[in-house]
Each structure stands twice: as structure tokens, then as C-alpha cells.
């Protein structure tokens, strides 16, 4: 009844010790007795130990049992020793001395193994199996009695990311490695002799997996052979609770294709994807952030029914033989996932990353604690948790070795399996860039339409979608055909839509060209670097579920990279400003580039063509022309057709471009540039004059009423600069250099920076209008071309106080005039300033030879009215008209030209003319007006 009498107990101990002493003396006196008193002595010791066997008397009981163990050497019969060891092991086990109980159990097993029969071997195997718990080499099957890992959710052991050190010691206790190896070898030997292939396979797998660093290569190969031999005796598909090789750890969740990315939907926003981060399936790798605290919340991942997913695991074979894994796949206990097996071969001392895939089949949670492996003919389950414990124990020095480090794998942080939920089917868009799945090759400035086809590969229709841009170089996407996309909604399963995206290749920087400088300058250079391309972000979703309330099924984000590979195309080598003087006797045809020995020559047989510009004395009836010269070079292997266009807001402005590339027709704007050739094009700049000459452009030159450095002066100067920069940008935006190559390749050359640098120094002369502009008109009949010359007169010049004209074209009368008839004409003078101008007007007439036709000694033209020293006053921004009549005596081509000397010129006019002296006369000269006179002399 659990009660003891101390007096009675003392009496029993006294009598037993007396009996033990008597038997011991008898044994010493006569060793030749027929019946040895040793057995009686040992029996008395065991009876006393059984009587005293409790924790408070453990020391006394232990001494009795150890004394009995010493007496076992005197026993002749093996059966007696067997009984003795069994009783000693049982009593030590009752006291809780597991290691001593295991030791004497092994003695029992040794006695069984001395018998050469299967029954004894089976008994030895059973006894040794009972000792595995004490030596921590037990089978996982026995440990599941107290802890069934298959029924425990994965999250319960890995939510915090921490593993208790005691669990590591209980699984792998390296301090007892020698004894553990001996015990496992004894189990292996006994199971082989007992013809139990499953037990022998289990023992060999535990021995090889836990103690491979302490086993020689020959021993490792022997264990592998033992595993294979045991598997040959087992039925196909046999499962074992103890895993062998390889070692498997969860590596990462590889980045899934972007078209499968899931985004939570916010039902309270029209743009439901804003403010809600993606929910998976694989957003980043690994899930555990570096340096994150152990208390962080568990990552959540969503998988979709019917869509394949992937998990990356790492396999290691730290042994010296080739390992063939017949199949490996994810172990799913939730039953709503179909895993796909793969086979792997691992050479000795190597590791390998393997992608394991599968398909979710039902909505709900998924639990994946590890992998199912078919290796050495037996199917086993490898748990990620156990390998995590092993690696943590190796890091703390509690385990013999890290198998992954032995195989050359880098140090890896433990990755926890996330909380996975399966959602109903969603639409799935798959993108295909038509004709450009790799890289879209574009020359610099090339504009091309790229067709993108989107196919719904899911089982749910796409009800709504939105297309936006992200990434770098977004300005290279000119337009997206949103209307085509929206009109195709909803996209049913299997349906597709194709829409166009207009792209324009950006200009390659000097750093890009220097990075590719090893290539020949005469060959095309492809510049395609990572992280420079734009992306199309397409957020789309299916229909809302019935009775969904505030919760909506998630949507998706499709990222379509526009992989643009920019190829070095035609380049602008240089842009500079030219001043060209054209003789007044020249006709319009002289402005055309012609081959041969003319004013503007071209050479088609040389690598670089040249343009020779004539310099004519301005006092002999010439007029000036301001030109922008662009030198273009083609370093590629294709031919470019260049089209230079000068756009103007005025409908009557002639947009002619003087181009050396076409000798047949100056009106054609196209220039052909062969490979490894350069060409120059000339662009007249006279059409870009400002309408009014304002004093605000001369703040620095003329000074300000405000003190130097005052706030008002600074504001005035800043406003003037802003207006000037706006005018420069407006001028540059009107000059377009477009090119064509082949049938479908076209683009626009980036010339903004080069033109701005070329015009910066002389922009005032180009943009500022002349103070006075002149035009002629028939008084009674006839028409003229371009009679409004407010944008066509020359710009002032400081040469000897003269303002030389420089028009972009020559004015002419469309209808011929008859000789020997009085022709009434008018000259119109416009004041382009905000001040009154007083002037002396003079009109001259010259023939094709440049001779003065009004010369009284050799006059060929008679006139009526006043043609010289005409005193006029012109109001601000107004016009005055002076009439006169001419009478032509000789048929031919004539040109009328008006000029005025400004009286009492203001500071603005002197600044415009860049006059060096206040007494210097300011002369304004108009462009020639051509008249064709017909008749008989």
C-alpha cells in the first residue's frame, strides 16, 4: 500500500547482507563445490535490490546491482548471465538510470548474438531497439508515439523561427557518437541475421545519415550496398519512417513569372490596385528578411486552383558515392495539392538546387512540411524542420558537421515555409511581343509600332484592366492603343487582344558609346543594358463573386518589359552657324546645289562632301543669308534617307532646305547618306524672326533705370533671359531631321543640344527682327510672290554702319511687265519697333549685270516720282506706303531694292545694329524685288 516499516526494512537488510556475506565466504573457502554458492549470493543481492528499489535508496540499490554485475563473471552458464543482465537492466530502468539500463541491455543482446539462429538474432534486435532512446538513435517511428509530426501543423514549430536547443541535442547528440555508432551497427547486424530487411534498412540509413563524417569512404560504400540489398528484399513502394540521403533544406521561392502576380483588390477605390501590395505567389526570395527579428509575422502566400507553382529546395550528398534519387516531390498533408516528382543525380560531395512543382486542386490552406523521397528503393519523408535543427546544431557545435558546407554550398539563412492559402481560379493573361520577344532593335530616334498580344490562358474572363508605365526611359513610349484594349473587354478564356505601342529609341549617351568603344566605329553598335527599359504594368481582374460584400477576389498585375536594344544610327557630328552672301544679280535657281563648278558644290566620290560658300561684297548689291549647317555621319551598315523640314507658323514662309545630297532638285528635302559617309545640310534661319524688336532684349547692353544689382534689375534680366530661352526652344522645335532606312524603319534625329550650342552665341542676330522691312507691290495690276516681307528682310550689320539685308528667298513679280509702258508701283515700309522712326528712303533699280538703271548718264529705266532722299516718319508697328512709277526701255530682268538711313536712331536700334559710335549711320536695306520685262527693244 505504499507504506514501509523502517524497523522491518532494517531487519530485512540485515538478514540479506548476512546471507550475502555467508555465501561469499563459502565461495572463497571451496571453489570446487559442485553447486557454486555464487548463484545464491547473486540471487540474494537481486532480491534485496528489488525490495529496496526506489529513488530515495538509489545509491544503495545501484551498489547492489553493480556488485551483482561483477559476480556475473563467475557464472559458467550463459543462460544464468542472461537472466542476471536482464534483471539488472530492468532494475536500473525502474530507478530511471536509462544509460545503465541500456548498457546491460546491450550485454543481453551480446549474449543473444552469440547464438547462431534467427530467433536469437531477432531477440537481440528487439533488445537493442529498446536501447535506442537512451542513446538518442531511435527510429522516427518510435518517436512519433509521443510526438506525431504528421498531425502537427507546420506553422506550430516554425512560426517564431526559433528551435529549442534541447530538441537539437535530442536529435543529434555528438558527444556519444562512438557508442551511438556501435549501437546502430549492432542493430544492423542483428536485423540482417534476423532476416528483417526493413529494420536493417532503417538502421543503415540512421547510421549513414547521422555519422557520415566519422565513417570512411569504404564504410560509406558498404552502408550504401547494405541499403540496396535490404531494399531488394522489400516490396516495391515500401515506406520507412527514417530518411537516409540526400539532405534536403528549403532554399527559396523562386520569382514566379510576372503574369502570375496577385494583387489585393480595394473595393473602395476605382483604381483598386493602389495602396495594396502584391500577395504572391512569389514576391521576393527568401521570405525571411535579413536582420528581421524573430517575432515578425509569418509571410502569407496565395496560390490559385489549377495553376502550377514551384518551390526550390537544395539537395546535398556529403558521401563518397554517387547518389541517385529516383523521385522527389513536395509532401502535402492537406490533400489539396498534386505534386510532380522529379529525379536527381548527385555526384559525391556535391549539392544541387532543384525546382519542385505542383498544382493546387482545392480552395483552403496548404501544409507542406517537407519532401517525399524515393531513394535506395524505399520511400521516406524528409522534414525541413529536422534539417533546420541539424544546421542550427552544426552552427552551435552540437552536431558533427554541416552537410551543405561539406558539399561546397554557401552559408544559408533558415527559410520558414510561409502560410499558404489557395484561392479560386483567376484570369491569367500571357503577353507576347510580336516579332520582338528578345530585344526590339531600334536605331537612335527611330519610331516604330510594336504589337503586343495578350491571351487569357485562365478559366475566368478578364472583366476590367488598366495599362500604365513604369521603369526608366518612359518617354520612349509615345503612345499606347488604350481604345483597342478597352474595346476588347471582356476577354473570355482563350481569347486574345492585340494592341500597338509606339516606341521611340532614346539617344545614346557618351558613356554608352565609351563602354562599347572596343567595336569598330564603322559598324552598328548595340547598346542594351539592364535596368534601362520601360515596362507596361497591366492590372486586371475577373468578375466579382456573388454576395462578396466588401471583399473581392484578388486581381493580377502583368509586367511586360519592352526590351529595347538601341543601335547607334546616323549621328549629328557638328552644327554651326554660317553667314552667306548671295549676289543680287543671281536668280532663285542659283540657290540650288548643282554638280560641277558652281557656287555650292558636292562630291559623291569622297567620304566627306564639302560645300564652298561665296563671299560677295555687300556694297555691290548683295544680300545676306543666315544658315545653320548640320554635318551628319552614317557609321552603320545601312543607308539612310534624311528629310530635313523647317516648320513655321506663317503659311507663306518658304521651307526650302539647301541640301548637298540631291543635285537635281533643291526643292526636294531628302538627302541620301551611304554607310561610312557624311553629308551636310543647310537650313535657312531667316523665317524665325520675332515680330517685334523690344528693348527688353538689350537689358545688359543698354542698362536699366534701376541701380546695378537691384531686385528690379535682376527680375528684368531674368525675364529677358526666360523670353530669349523660350524663343530659342521654339526655334529648335521647328527644325526636324527625320530619316528613313529600308521599308519600315524610320525615326527622328536628336539635334536639340547641338543646335542650341551652335546658336547660343549668335541667337540675338537670328531671332531679332529688322527695325524696318520693305516690300514692293504693283500699283494697278499684277501680283507678286510673298509680298509680306516682314519675316524676309535682312538683319542689321555693323559693317561701316550698314545693316545688310539677308533674306531667305528672292521676291519676284509673277506676271511679266511690258516694256514702254508706265508701271505704277508702291513700296511699303514697316516699323517693327515700339518707337517712331524717322528715315530717308531711297529706291534703286539694277539689271542682271548689277548696273544702276536709274543712272542719268546711261539710264535704261525712266521714273516718275521721288526715288531718293524721301523723308518719312513711320509710327510704331505701322506701315507707310510710297508710290512711284517706272518706265522700262529695254526688256530683261530687273531688281528693285529699297534702303533707308534712320535719323536720330535710338539706343535700341544702335544695339540691334551693333553700332560702335553714336554718330554712325544706321542703314536698313530690303531684299531685291525681281521684275521680268517683256517686249521689243
TrEMBL record:
A single Gene Ontology CC term: Golgi apparatus
Upper classification of the organism: Eukaryota, Viridiplantae, Streptophyta, Embryophyta, Tracheophyta
UniProt signal peptide: none
UniProt region (Disordered), positions on chain: 139-162, 785-808
Positions of the Trs120/TRAPPC9 third Ig-like domain: 601-767
Annotated Trs120/TRAPPC9 fourth Ig-like domain residues: 812-933
Protein name per UniProt: Trafficking protein particle complex II-specific subunit 120 homolog
Top-level taxon of the source organism: Eukaryota
Compositionally biased region (Basic and acidic residues): 145-154
Biased composition (Low complexity): 786-806
Domain (Trs120/TRAPPC9 first Ig-like): residue spans on this chain: 275-377
Trs120/TRAPPC9 TPR region domain segment(s): 75-228
Classification via InterPro entries: Ig_TRAPPC9_Trs120_1st, Ig_TRAPPC9_Trs120_3rd, Ig_TRAPPC9_Trs120_4th, TPR_TRAPPC9_Trs120, Trs120_TRAPPC9
Amino acid at each position: 500500500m505504499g507504506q514501509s516499516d523502517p524497523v522491518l526494512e532494517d531487519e530485512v537488510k540485515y538478514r540479506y547482507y548476512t546471507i550475502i556475506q555467508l555465501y561469499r565466504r563459502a565461495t572463497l573457502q571451496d571453489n570446487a563445490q559442485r553447486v557454486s554458492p555464487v548463484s545464491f549470493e547473486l540471487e540474494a543481492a537481486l532480491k534485496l535490490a528489488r525490495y529496496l528499489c526506489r529513488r530515495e535508496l538509489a545509491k544503495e540499490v545501484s551498489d547492489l546491482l553493480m556488485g551483482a554485475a561483477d559476480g556475473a563473471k563467475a557464472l559458467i552458464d550463459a543462460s544464468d548471465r542472461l537472466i542476471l543482465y536482464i534483471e539488472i537492466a530492468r532494475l536500473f530502468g525502474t530507478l530511471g538510470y536509462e544509460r545503465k539500463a541500456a548498457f546491460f541491455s546491450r550485454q543481453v543482446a551480446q549474449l543473444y548474438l552469440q547464438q547462431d539462429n534467427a530467433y536469437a538474432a531477432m531477440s537481440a534486435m528487439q533488445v537493442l531497439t529498446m536501447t535506442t532512446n537512451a542513446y538518442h538513435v531511435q527510429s522516427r517511428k518510435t518517436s512519433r508515439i509521443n510526438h506525431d509530426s504528421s498531425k502537427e501543423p507546420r506553422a506550430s514549430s516554425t512560426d517564431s523561427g526559433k528551435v529549442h536547443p534541447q530538441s537539437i541535442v535530442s536529435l543529434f547528440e555528438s558527444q556519444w557518437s562512438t557508442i551511438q555508432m556501435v549501437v546502430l551497427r549492432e542493430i544492423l547486424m542483428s536485423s540482417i541475421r534476423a532476416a528483417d530487411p526493413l529494420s536493417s534498412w532503417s538502421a543503415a540509413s540512421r547510421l549513414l545519415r547521422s555519422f557520415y563524417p566519422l565513417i570512411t569512404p569504404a564504410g560509406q560504400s558498404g552502408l550504401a550496398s547494405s541499403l540496396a540489398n535490404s531494399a531488394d528484399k522489400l516490396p516495391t513502394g515500401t515506406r520507412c519512417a527514417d530518411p537516409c540521403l540526400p539532405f534536403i533544406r528549403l532554399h527559396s521561392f523562386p520569382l514566379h513569372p510576372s503574369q502570375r502576380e496577385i494583387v489585393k483588390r480595394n473595393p473602395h477605390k476605382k483604381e483598386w490596385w493602389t495602396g495594396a501590395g502584391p500577395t504572391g505567389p512569389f514576391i521576393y526570395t527568401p521570405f525571411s528578411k535579413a536582420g528581421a527579428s524573430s517575432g515578425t509575422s509569418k509571410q502569407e502566400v496565395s496560390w490559385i486552383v489549377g495553376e502550377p507553382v514551384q518551390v526550390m529546395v537544395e539537395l546535398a550528398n556529403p558521401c563518397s558515392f554517387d547518389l541517385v534519387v529516383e523521385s522527389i516531390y513536395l509532401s502535402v498533408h492537406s490533400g489539396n495539392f498534386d505534386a510532380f516528382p522529379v529525379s536527381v543525380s548527385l555526384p559525391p560531395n556535391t549539392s544541387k538546387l532543384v525546382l519542385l512543382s505542383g498544382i493546387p486542386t482545392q480552395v483552403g490552406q496548404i501544409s507542406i512540411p517537407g519532401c517525399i523521397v524515393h531513394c535506395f528503393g524505399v520511400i521516406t519523408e524528409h522534414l525541413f524542420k529536422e534539417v533546420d535543427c541539424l544546421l542550427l546544431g552544426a552552427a552551435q557545435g552540437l552536431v558533427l558537421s554541416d552537410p551543405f558546407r561539406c558539399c561546397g554550398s554557401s552559408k544559408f539563412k533558415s527559410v520558414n515555409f510561409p502560410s499558404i492559402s489557395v484561392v479560386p481560379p483567376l484570369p491569367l493573361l500571357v503577353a507576347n511581343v510580336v516579332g520582338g520577344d528578345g530585344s526590339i532593335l531600334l536605331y537612335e530616334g527611330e519610331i516604330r509600332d510594336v504589337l503586343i498580344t495578350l491571351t487569357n490562358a485562365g478559366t475566368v474572363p478578364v472583366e476590367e484592366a488598366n495599362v500604365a508605365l513604369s521603369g526608366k526611359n518612359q518617354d520612349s513610349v509615345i503612345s499606347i492603343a488604350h481604345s483597342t484594349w478597352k474595346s476588347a473587354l471582356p476577354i473570355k478564356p482563350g481569347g486574345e487582344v492585340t494592341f500597338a505601342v509606339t516606341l521611340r529609341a532614346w539617344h545614346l549617351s557618351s558613356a554608352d558609346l565609351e563602354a562599347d568603344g572596343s567595336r569598330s566605329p564603322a559598324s552598328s553598335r548595340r547598346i542594351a543594358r539592364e535596368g534601362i527599359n520601360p515596362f507596361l504594368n497591366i492590372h486586371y481582374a475577373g468578375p466579382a463573386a456573388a454576395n462578396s460584400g466588401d471583399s473581392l477576389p484578388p486581381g493580377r498585375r502583368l509586367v511586360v518589359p519592352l526590351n529595347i536594344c538601341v543601335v547607334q544610327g546616323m549621328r549629328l557630328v557638328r552644327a554651326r552657324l554660317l553667314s552667306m552672301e548671295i549676289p543680287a544679280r543671281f536668280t532663285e535657281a542659283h540657290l540650288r546645289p548643282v554638280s560641277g563648278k558652281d557656287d555650292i558644290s558636292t562630291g559623291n566620290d569622297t567620304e566627306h562632301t564639302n560645300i564652298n560658300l561665296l563671299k560677295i561684297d555687300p556694297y555691290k548689291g548683295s544680300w545676306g543669308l543666315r544658315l545653320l549647317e548640320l554635318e551628319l555621319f552614317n557609321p552603320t551598315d545601312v543607308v539612310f534617307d534624311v528629310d530635313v523640314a523647317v516648320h513655321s507658323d506663317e503659311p507663306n514662309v518658304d521651307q526650302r532646305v539647301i541640301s548637298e545630297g540631291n543635285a537635281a532638285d533643291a526643292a526636294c528635302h531628302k538627302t541620301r547618306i551611304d554607310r561610312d559617309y557624311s553629308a551636310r545640310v543647310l537650313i535657312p534661319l531667316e523665317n524665325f524672326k520675332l515680330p517685334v524688336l523690344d528693348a527688353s532684349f538689350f537689358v545688359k547692353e543698354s542698362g536699366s533705370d534701376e541701380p546695378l544689382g537691384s531686385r528690379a534689375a535682376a527680375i528684368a534680366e531674368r525675364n529677358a533671359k526666360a523670353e530669349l530661352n523660350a524663343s530659342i526652344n521654339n526655334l529648335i522645335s521647328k527644325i526636324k531631321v527625320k530619316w528613313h532606312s529600308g521599308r519600315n524603319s524610320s525615326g527622328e534625329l536628336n539635334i536639340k543640344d547641338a543646335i542650341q550650342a551652335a546658336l547660343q552665341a549668335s541667337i540675338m542676330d537670328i531671332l531679332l527682327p529688322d527695325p524696318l522691312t520693305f516690300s514692293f507691290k504693283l500699283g494697278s495690276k499684277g501680283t507678286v510672290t510673298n509680298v509680306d516681307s516682314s519675316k524676309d528682310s535682312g538683319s542689321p550689320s555693323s559693317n561701316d554702319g550698314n545693316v545688310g539685308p539677308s533674306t531667305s528667298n528672292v521676291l519676284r513679280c509673277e506676271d511679266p511687265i511690258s516694256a514702254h509702258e508706265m508701271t505704277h508701283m508702291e513700296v511699303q515700309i514697316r516699323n517693327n519697333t515700339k518707337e517712331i522712326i524717322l528715315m530717308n528712303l531711297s529706291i534703286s533699280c539694277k539689271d542682271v549685270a548689277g548696273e544702276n538703271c536709274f543712272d542719268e548718264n546711261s539710264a535704261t529705266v525712266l521714273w516718275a516720282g521721288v526715288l531718293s532722299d524721301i523723308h518719312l516718319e513711320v509710327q510704331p508697328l505701322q506701315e507707310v506706303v510710297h508710290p512711284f512709277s517706272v518706265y522700262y526701255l529695254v526688256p530683261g530682268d530687273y531688281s528693285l531694292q529699297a534702303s533707308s538711313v534712320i535719323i536720330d536712331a535710338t539706343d535700341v536700334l544702335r544695339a540691334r545694329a551693333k553700332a560702335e559710335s553714336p554718330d554712325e549711320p544706321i542703314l536698313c536695306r530690303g531684299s531685291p524685288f525681281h521684275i521680268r520685262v517683256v517686249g521689243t527693244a
